[in-house]
Structures are given as C-alpha cells and as structure tokens.
Amino acid sequence: MFEFINKNRGLTNTVFMLALDKKKKTERVIIGEAGAIKLRLERNISDVLYDKTRPLGRLLLDFEKDPDKEWQLNASYMADNFAGLTPTKNVESRALKPYIGFLEQKYMSGEPTAMFAAVKTWEIYWQHFKGKDGSEKFLNRVGKLYRPFFGLREHNLNLWQLSSANVMSAVLFTEESQIELWQPLKKRNARRGECVVTSSSFIPIIFYYLERFEEWGLQLKKCKICGTGFLAESRHYELCSNKCRKVTAVAAKQQYEEKIEGDKVVAAYENHYQYWYNRGRRLKRNNAPDEEIAEFTKAFNKFRKGAIKRKAEVKSGDLSFMDFSTWLFEQQEIVDGLVKHGR
What is the pLDDT of residues 151-171, one digit of tens each? Predict the structure, then answer.
C-alpha cells in the first residue's frame, strides 16, 4: 500500500512493468520499484504495489480516461504551492490535502494506469519541490505522463485499433519513446518471458501492446449489442459474449416472426381487397344501377379504411391476426350482399 506522505519525497523510483502471454491470452502488470519487481519475477518474493494477471487487452480497454483534464488541473494546483510552502510538515500537509485526496482516490481505484500515475505524480512532485524551476519541471514531466489520458477521451478504443506505425507518427518527446526490455532467466520461450518496463510515460507501453496485437492478428472491438470493448481474433467478430450472441439470435428470430406475421397480414388484406375490387368491376360490366354502384363504392371505401386501421393494430400488437381475419371474412359477407347483378 502506497502512502502519500512527505517521507516519500523522491526516495523511490516506481516503474510500470507489462508482460504479455499470447498462448494463455493474459497480461501481467506489476507496479513497484525495479529491484522489487525483478525479485518478484525471479523468486516470487518482495513487496510491490500492484501485481495482477488479467485477460489480454484489459490494460487498453480499461485505460484511464480524463476528458476534462482533471489530472492536469490537480497537478497545476499542486505546482502553485511550490512557492508558498515552507519545509514544515504541517503546512505542507494542510496545503496538499485536497490534492492528496485526488491521488489517493485514483490509487484506490485499482486501475493500474491510474495507480501508477498517482504514485509517479507524488514522486515527481517531491523530486522537484523547492528545486530550481521546480514547478515548471514538475508540470512538464507529469504532463507527458498524463498525455494518453485526455488524448483518448471516449474514443480510446478507436485509437487502439490504429496500427502502431500510425500512432508513432505523433510527435514524441525523448522520454515518451524509452522503454526497458527484460528477459527473466530460465525461460525457454524468450518472447513469453519478455517484460517491458517504463518509469515516465505510458506511450511506449501502448506502442508495444499495439505491435504485439498486430503481430498476433488480434483486434480490440466494441460489441454492437452492449458497447463493451473486447478482444477479437478477427475483424469479423462483432459480439463480446454468448449473452450478447443470444440477444442477437432472439432479436433475429423476433424480426423473422414479425416479418412472417406482417406478410400474412398483407396477403390477407390484398386477397380480400381483390375480392372487393372484382365484385365492383362485375357490377359495372353488368350495367348495375347507379345507386347500387354508389352504395358499393361507399362500402368499399369504408372497408379500405377499416382494413388499414386494423392492419396497424395487428402490427402494434393491439389486435390478433385471427381477429383481423375474422373481420375480413365478415366484410366479404357484406360485399356479397351488396352485389346483386354480379352473382
């Protein structure tokens, strides 16, 4: 557990380690001092701040987002205190308390990129506290650290889908392209034992992840049903889980049934409409009296209006198809009673 207290002034150098396993489809993230992490990897001993193995892709899917630039704003307020603070513990603690609360909240979130950023912010703060141009250097360093947070906003999944070559075209500072490559001892498969480590920027970690995905033919997609990000082995995958696949299957079945139901309704209406139409033509061919034709025309128009209304009710579920069919046949008896010269 990291404590945001003054005794941590620049005495530690926390690093962020990432190891990917294609075969097991996992990622392992460890946060801690470099020496402690190496002991954890080689002997499974020593204390670190964070060590979890998760499904492959979670780091990018759950990456810290900061569309409102709260990280940068918090750092700016911390930097404002450089000139006003005296080296007295009580004064420092009181002035920094609101910003310590922000960092503690991010650290306790359990999201590794937020945790690492919180710890590094605290370390960098005390490394430059009271130093020459300390405020400017502090903001410059944490600004590079936070860069992926507010640059991604809610579109970070789309950014991850870009190839690493395209992302690399962005303007980078020296520390944003530096990364350490560790190869733990006694590993037959060197790539499986490969670890990448950064101490100042997430950018090289992101590039490394994207390159492995490109090499392995994997993609991060957004489920078209629930909107959740997920790891896909093909660009054709659009659903994240069996649950969403079931939702799609149920929806497809419902659409099919609605189409069939709709086709039945249309067919029934068209058959009865044609029946009425043919009876009207027969009246005219047989030179029926004008008043009989007028009466038929009035009834035909009434039939059409009633049928259109009931078709809509069937579609909305307010009327069953059986009731609609019954009504149509009742109307057929009416037209048979009107047509006297066409029998």
Answer: 544 444 444 544 444 444 455
